Structure formats: C-alpha cells, structure tokens
Amino acid sequence: DNFVVLKNVCKRFGDNTVIGDLDLEIKKGSLVTLLGPSGCGKTTVLRLVAGLEKPSSGQIFIDGEDVTNTSIQQRDICMVFQSYALFPHLSLHDNVGYGLKMLKLSAAEIKHRVDEALKLVDMEGMGDRFVDQISGGQQQRVALARALVLKPKVLLFDEPLSNLDANLRRSMRETIRELQQRFNITSLYVTHDQTEAFAVSDTVIVMNDGEIMQQGSPGDLYQSPASMFMANFMGDANIFSGSFDGEQLNINGYRIAADPEVIRGNPAGDYQIGVRPEAILLAHEGEPCQQCIVENVVYMGSMYEVAVMWHDQELLLQLNSSQFDAGLSDHAYLTINPTGLFLLPA
Ligand code: ADP
Ligand code: MG
Asked: d(Cα 277, Cα 336) in Å, to the nearest integer?
C-alpha cells in the first residue's frame, strides 16, 4: 500500500548531480519526514514529487499511477512553504478559498469548506481579516488551512516552521501531526531540524548529498545509527576504539555487559563504539580503568554538560541536574549505561 513511490530517481542540474539514485516510499495515509542538512536536496525531492521538476532518470508513482511525465496540475498535490505565500490583498477567507474558486465550486460550498478549514487550524471566525492583521504563526495556520481545504492526495511540507519562534513551532508541530493523522493525508515533510523531524513523524529518512543515509523510527536512528555521519548528525556522540568478545564490550579496559539491542547480531571483533552523552554517569568510586578527570562543567538548566578526560580522550556527558554531584572533584569514575551504546565498523 505504498502511495508515493520514487524509483531510482536522479536529478542533475547541468553537471551537478543533486539527487543520485533515490528510492523512497510513503505508505497511504502516513507522514514521512526527510531530514538533512541544508543543500542536501530536500526541496528538490519535494519539487520532483510535486511535478515542478522532472527527474533526469527514474520514475515517480502516485496512487499506483506513473506520474513521471505529468504536470503539477495533474497530480493533485499541495505544498506548504516556509514563506507562507499568502496573497496580501485577499482576506483570509479568499486566501483559503482560492484553490476552490479555481475549481469553480459555488460560493456557498466554498464558504462552508473554508469555514471548516479555518476551524481546524483554530482560526474560526477570522475569515474577514487580512494577512497583515494576523501574526506569523496564524499566517502559517492559514497556509495549512489553504492546503487542507483542497483535500489533496498528497501534502508536501517544505520547512514550514522555520520562520516561527520556538513556542509556536512546538504548537504548530502538534497541529500538523494531529490534522495529518485525523485526515490520513499522505504527506512528505522536509526539515533540517532533528527535533522537528522526531516530533512530527514516525518514520524519518535522513538524507545527505542527495542520498539516503538511513531510514527508521526516531528511536532507531538515535540509538542505532548506521554510520559515522548518522552518529554525529543525530545528536552528540562519544566514539571509542573498542572490541566485543562475544559477551562483553571492552573500552579502555572497562568491560561492559553486551546488550542484545546494542550488538544486533554483530560478531566478535574490533569496533568503533559510540556512547551518547546521557549514557555516561559519574561516581566517587569505581575501577581504576574508569577513572577520569573532570575538566569543565556547564550548567544548562535541566542538565549539566560536563567534559571529562578519560584515557587521553575528551568526552561529553549530559547529566540531569538531579544526578549531578557538585561534590565531585577533579577525579571521578565514570560508568556507562550498557543500553546507551552503538557499534560501528572499526
Ligand atoms: P535543500 O532543500 O536540502 O536545502 P535543495 O534541494 O534546495 O537543498 O538544493 C540541493 C542542491 O541543488 C543545491 O546545491 C542547489 O544549489 C542545487 N539546485 C537546486 N535547484 C537548482 C536549480 N534549479 N538549478 C541548479 N541547481 C539547483
Ligand atoms: Mg530546501
């Protein structure tokens, strides 16, 4: 039941290959997020799905139909942008109803559907206002209503929340997720912001340089990154040269019970072992091989960021404010939570 399918899609601009052999599938009614650094080709993928660009090679299917060579008008797709792209000279009602008017619906039908859409985005009764009379957050809600009112087959979001401040972003994230789930609109959501990707979707596809690096649930991507790029892109990571003997992991002589979720079927051998900053704790006592030197402590509100030196390597730790023991002097002992690790090839 894949509703949107990209098969071996390449996109070149002149000599510049922006998308190289991309395969992507979105199940009917689900929302998939494309997450990646600026310039990696996210907007290009959206434009390819929308029909604003043609692939240099490969195929695009929507609802079982090969749309590779069809125009944007034939695809029944709506796009929500970072710049809300509203018409300043039209009322909110007319902005939202614009597409319906193009479809030549009756004025009464348009009003009914516009009112309904404005209500969905918490803008009920505000149809007579103009764009300059509402806030940026409200403008983004109107842009969302304008897309929803058309009940498109596919909804595309291009960094829709980038212009909003942190609190508004959070509430819009919730609104988008809730409406997408309520109406089961098949959606592709693009962002460079990891938090946003994790908040709006169950499936995240990470892209870099026009290629898919890894795809999975937020938990999978964070806990089991498949490459060094992923380990660093999905938050901070401390990386060690270590080994696995079939039962225990060994980092600098510190032996850690091997959790099956960490090992994931890997054979014994040498590995790069990643440890997330929150998986390391500090204590007053421990084995000699766990002894470290506290180098720097930064209070961050809900946590402390602590830098320690351990076997000539500087590590980053994030400790809950309640866990941090201000009595720790220069010398401390670290312990590593066995479930907070991941393995990468040596
Ligand atoms: P993102 O949305 O991830 O920031 P884009 O898809 O906008 O990335 O761009 C990816 C790359 O493709 C960039 O290097 C950009 O310069 C290039 N690019 C995008 N559109 C065009 C175009 N119309 N002509 C030439 N190069 C383009
Ligand atoms: Mg972009």
From this structure: 10
Ligand 1 contact via 44 beta carbon (within 6 Å) = yes
Q: How far is the CA of 12 from the centre of ligand 1 (A)?
A: 10
Instruction: Among the bound ligands, name the one nearest to the CA of residue 36.
Output: 1
Q: Closest ligand 1 atom, CA of 47?
A: 6
SS3 38: coil
Cα Rg, the chain, nearest whole Å? 25
Q: Which ligand 1 atom is the nearest neighbour of the CA of 158?
A: 2
* 59 Cα to the center of ligand 1, angstroms: 20
247-253 long-range contacts (CB < 8 A, ≥24 apart) are 249/273, 249/338, 249/341, 251/336, 252/289, 252/310, 252/311, 253/289
User: Is residue 148 left, alpha or beta, with left meaning phi > 0 and alpha meaning psi from -120 to 50?
Assistant: alpha
Q: Residues 6 or more apart from 230 whose CB is under 8 A from it?
A: 206, 213, 214, 221
Check pocket membership of 41 for ligand 1, CB cut-off 6 A. Answer: yes
Complex ipTM, two decimals?
A: 0.98
Beta bridge partners of 158: 81, 190
What's the whole-number mean pLDDT along residues 320-345? 87
The residue count for the chain = 346
Tell which atom from ligand 1 comes closest to the C-alpha of 13.
25
Residue nearest to atom 5 of ligand 1 (CA): 41
What is the CA angle 99-199-120, rounded to 5?
35
| 344, 272 contact by CB (below 8 A) | yes
Query: In this predicted model, what pLDDT tens digit does every residue of 80-139 receive, in sequence order?
Result: 988 878 999 999 999 999 999 998 999 999 999 999 999 999 999 999 999 999 998 999
CA 31, CA 141: separation in Å to the nearest integer?
Answer: 18
Identify whether the C-beta of residue 210 lies closer than 8 Å to the C-beta of residue 17.
yes
Q: Counting ligands in written order, which one lies closest to the CA of residue 13?
A: 1
